[in-house]
Write a structure and sequence with these properties.
This is Nitrogen regulatory protein P-II. Pfam families: NAD_binding_9 (PF13454). About 35% of the residues lie in helices and about 15% in strands. With about 625 residues, the protein is of the alpha/beta class. It has a six-stranded mixed sheet with strand order 3-2-1-7-19-18, covered by helices on one side. A five-stranded parallel sheet has the order 8-17-9-12-13. Strands 4-5-6 form a three-stranded antiparallel sheet.
Length: about 625
């Protein structure tokens, strides 16, 4: 049997691990693993210099490549080290044997990696390479693994499987294909082509949406004003490159806050986005590797019971009501624990009292407290909706950052606000179950992909705390200018321009779109994807229709949700051709998840499903 894995990121490494575990000893298996980047994939490439300083968005103890959940390994021992325990044990020895990795990774480990550490992305890439070596070393004689560091440019169906063509011109015949390409670049739209042409014509600089570690900002200096569109995770990468990457230094003050010492080479940065605010910072880590919040209200049995009374569906308004109730409960629990004037016995009494939501409006009078029992979570996600002036917004922005820092410093377990935000991550599995198993009607799927996705992103998909602290320091150093919400960009005859909701206009010599390209296979800048599309081997998902007759998920590749096998243009199953991960975003809820120790992470579920299907033939 021959199997081709296209993409060598965490998802296909999980498939490879599963194949090694499940291949019968009397079955000969050859696995060809393809990726133009080193094992680990593009995002974690340790040979991108910026990945030595760009941070993962997950704490080191909450990252693994070992499926210890299915293997019933409940201890956190050395047999399947997570990223933290690997960094504290095997990493230095591995790096000493592999001088091709920059000394920065040895220095990072020597500086101490702890459970409260966001490691560099490059170190995750080194961990992936080590993991691949471990898999190769335990392979039985009947399994052969070949890694090809090149792009697969074409795939055609044959009578006995598939024929792959690599960029080198080499062809590979295979029985099964598992395609997990990660986040693909998008072709430029007409508007982006116009911006690129304008930049070239005027000798300006335009950086369309891309992977931040691949941006080259060397041409930008203190003579430039840079418009940055987007305040999400990619923004913080670009921010670091344009400041510390230009020689500036962040200094820690006595109170723990940061200041920024300019190098004199930094461009001036004008920042903005649709919402106007960056997502909330991750709190100081107080959770173990597999420690998840156990909800009181937002439980799968409770939600299934609601569906049973509503023709198998959970109304979006009910879904949000119960989720908000859970957030409020967590907020109140943490607020009570923070009360210094209340005895432990009295706290226990109050905590028991608030288990009934009907008591929330009574708790302050009953115990002479001043808790905020009517917190608006929509207001927390979008607090500037009714703001009328740019001046007021900019003042609010700075105070918002300061409060977010203070909240995050209290911890992801104990902080009233940040602790509540963090449970959104822990409850994602329940949301995914409801979403993936069609517990919502078609109109509500539209709301989930718009309103709720923005809500979830703003509150639970933020950067490490240090990045918010750095942003505040850069604003105070006058390196960064804040703009209002609804930040949009264009150009006039001489420069790039940006406008915001308040009618303010900003001019720049450079424009950066600080985000990854939109997930849409139809516009993916990938010869393989476009060939598959032209052949009719892949097509858009047409299973959910918008009120206007368009298909809600037409940007995602259609697969059989039970097996991840591709469904072609004629609505026929393409047997033995599997697609997992990010190209399915929208069909599946929140696919950009790194595996977590001792947890049934989606990447491991996908891998088990695919491998079981391969051996079920």
């Amino acid at each position: 049997m021959k199997i081709a894995l296209i993409g060598a990121g965490p998802r296909n490494l999980a498939v490879l691990d599963r194949l090694i575990q499940k291949t019968p000893s009397n079955q000969s298996l050859t696995v060809d693993l393809f990726d133009p980047y080193p094992v680990g994939g593009r995002v974690w490439n340790p040979f991108f210099k910026d990945n030595q300083t760009f941070l993962m968005n997950t704490f080191a103890n909450q990252v693994t490549l070992f499926n210890d959940y299915d293997n019933n390994q409940t201890n956190e021992g050395s047999l399947s080290p997570n990223l933290l325990s690997w960094a504290q044990s095997f990493a230095l020895e591995y790096l000493e044997k592999h001088p091709e990795y920059d000394i920065a990774y040895r220095e990072e480990i020597m500086a101490s990696v702890t459970s409260n550490t966001h490691t560099s992305r490059g170190l995750m890439g080194v961990y992936a390479a080590w993991f691949f070596e471990q898999l190769s070393s335990i392979c039985p004689e009947n399994i052969s693994i070949n890694f090809h560091q090149e792009t697969v440019t074409d795939l055609t169906k044959t009578t006995d499987g598939f024929l792959l063509t690599a960029e080198s011109g080499e062809s590979y015949q295979t029985d099964d294909v598992v395609f997990a390409p990660g986040h693909l670049d998008a072709k430029l739209t007409d508007k982006k082509k116009d911006l690129a042409h304008f930049a070239q014509e005027k000798s300006l600089h335009y950086y369309p949406a891309s992977h931040p570690a691949e941006n080259d900002f060397s041409a930008l200096d203190n003579n430039d004003t840079v418009l940055i569109q987007g305040l999400g995770l990619s923004f913080f990468d670009d921010l670091l490159t344009l400041t510390a990457g230009k020689g500036g230094i962040f200094l820690t003050k006595k109170d723990g806050s940061l200041s920024y010492q300019k190098s004199g080479h930094e461009p001036h940065l004008v920042i903005g986005s649709g919402s106007g605010l960056p997502p909330r910072a991750h709190g100081t880590n107080q959770k173990g590797a597999s420690e998840l919040y156990h909800p009181l209200f937002f439980t799968l049995p409770a939600l299934k019971a609601i569906a049973a009374e509503n023709n198998g569906k959970v109304p979006y308004s009910t879904f949000r009501f119960i989720l908000n109730r859970e957030l409020t409960y967590k907020y109140l629990v943490n607020s009570i624990h923070q009360l210094k004037d209340l005895s432990e016995s009295k706290k226990a009494e109050v905590l028991e009292f608030i288990k009934n939501p009907d008591n929330w409006l009574l708790v302050n009078d009953e115990f002479n407290l001043n808790l905020n029992t009517e917190i608006s979570w929509d207001k927390q996600a979008n607090p500037t909706r009714d703001m009328k002036s740019g001046t007021a917004f900019k003042k609010f922005f700075i105070q918002h950052l300061k409060k977010d820092i203070q909240s995050a410093q209290l911890g992801n377990q104990e902080s009233p606000l940040t602790g509540a935000y963090d449970i959104l991550r822990d409850l994602r599995g329940t949301v995914r179950y409801l979403y993936d198993n069609r517990y919502f009607d078609e109109d509500d799927y539209q709301k989930l992909l718009t309103d709720f996705k923005l809500f979830d992103t703003q509150l639970s998909v933020g950067p490490p705390l240090i990045r918010i602290q750095q942003l505040l320091a850069l604003i105070e150093a006058k390196i960064v200018t804040i703009t209002g919400p609804n930040f949009s960009v264009a150009h006039d005859n001489q420069s790039f321009i940006a406008t915001d909701r308040f009618g303010d206009t900003y001019h720049g010599t450079a424009l950066i779109e600080a985000r990854l390209g939109r997930i849409d296979f139809r516009t993916a800048d990938s010869p393989l994807i476009q060939s598959l599309r032209q052949q009719g081997l892949i097509t858009g998902d047409n299973r959910i229709t918008n009120p206007d007759g368009t298909e809600l998920l037409e940007n995602t590749i259609k697969v059989d949700p039970a097996t991840y096998q591709v469904i072609d243009h004629d609505n026929q199953l393409v047997k033995n051709f599997f697609i997992t991960g990010i190209p399915l975003e929208g069909q599946r809820w929140f696919t950009t998840v790194i595996p977590r120790p001792h947890t049934q992470t989606i990447a491991f579920v996908e891998a088990a499903t695919v491998v079981n299907q391969i051996f079920a033939k």
